[in-house]
Amino acid sequence: MPGLQAFNTAPADELRPLLTECLAVPRWVDAVLAARPYPDVDALVAAAEVDLSTDEIHGAIAGHPRIGERARHDGVSAKWSAAEQSGVDLSVADRLVAANLAYEERFGHIYLVCATGLSGEQMLADLASRMGNDPDTELRVVNGELARIAALRLRKAIA
Fold it and tell me: E.C. number, please (predicted)?
């Protein structure tokens, strides 16, 4: 997508798949489309801040790979995910697998973090710190991480 002007004027049906790659929540996609035109990129990125329901959070994370794993599908979000997780090195891969499993047993869903700029060690520390959260608090944390990921992806989508 070449720039904000094109985003503001493109037909909604052309943008819907791209926005879904940023955050797979139909209500959010509809709200972003309905709020066009955006005066600047920051206003568009601010649309990533959304309070998601529990079902929306679970639906949105369903398409995300575990930290340290490749996406299960091809497409724009799979490429973005690989780039976002580029800080994960093989020296922590086994520990990430074990930590992911413990997290999933505790919370019933994958560990999700906005991994851009984080090393594998930083992600392990973040995951460990979040294990003490109660399930409702952790869902709110995941909501925030989804918003951060969506904001990054929106910037990439219009760059």
Answer: 4.1.1.97
Domain span at 98: 3-158
Per-residue model confidence as pLDDT tens digits over 88-126: 566 788 899 899 999 999 999 999 999 999 999 999 999
Q: Which two tokens stand for residue 151?
A: 């904001």
**Which residue in the block uniquely carries the two structure tokens 């979040």?**
130
Quick one: tokens of 69?
């794993």
Q: How many domains does the chain have?
A: 1
What length does the chain have? 159
What does each C-alpha distance from 101 to 93, 94, 152 come to in angstroms? Answer: 12, 11, 27
Respond yes or no on whether the N-terminal peptide bond of residue 65 is cis (omega within 30° of 0). no
User: Amino acid identity of 118?
Assistant: L
φ/ψ bin of 40: left (φ > 0), alpha (ψ from -120 to 50), beta (otherwise): beta
Q: Which CATH number fits the domain that encloses residue 41?
A: 1.10.3330.10
pTM of the predicted model, to two decimals?
0.84
CA-CA-CA-CA torsion sign (11, 12, 13, 16): positive
CB 25 within 8 A of CB 55: no
